[in-house]
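Continuing from the previous page...

OK, I double-checked the sequence for Helix-turn-helix transcriptional regulator against my notes and this is the correct one:
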Amino acid sequence: MQTVNIAVITRDTILAVGLKHLIRNMFGIKATIIPSVADNLPTEYANTDLFITDSEGFATNPEFFIPRRNRTMVIAATCNCNDSKGMLLDRHADETTIISRLTEAIDQVCDTLGTGNELSQREIDVLAQVASGYTNKEIADNLSISVNTVLTHRKNITAKLGIKSVSGLSVYAMMNGYISSVPDSTKSNI
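Thanks. Re-ran it with the corrected sequence; updated structure tokens here:
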């Protein structure tokens, strides 16, 4: 496995220490504990490949984490993390699941280091529409593109993110600042 620099950013000392030791013992990777996001994060963390934070840390520091969203794993109190490709972790999951999710996150970061897995602006536009509950036809009309183009963008988004469900895409879009609210439940997700 490629060398990965990991920073655990949380005020929860027990969580931070536990993750640091788990990452070192299971993956042979040194993790650094940072109690909070400072205005000017020290330059030694500029090369950090993966940030792990709790939901409180993410919510209080979106200006730090959103630009680093592809390198940030969020530990939530409870979540359905099956569609998140390793970047969400249920803090109450069993040990095997936690190790599996950490493995997925580390693998995802390793896979994307130096690759072009970023979404294009048009893919972000389509993702925001999908996450907001619009149908393929509505997205095509809203963005003045064909339905086939919408389908192509959705296929590319799924391939790049590894997320197949609309609910998973919605969580990803919200977590990354592409949409700001929960979709209107009266819209169809087809």
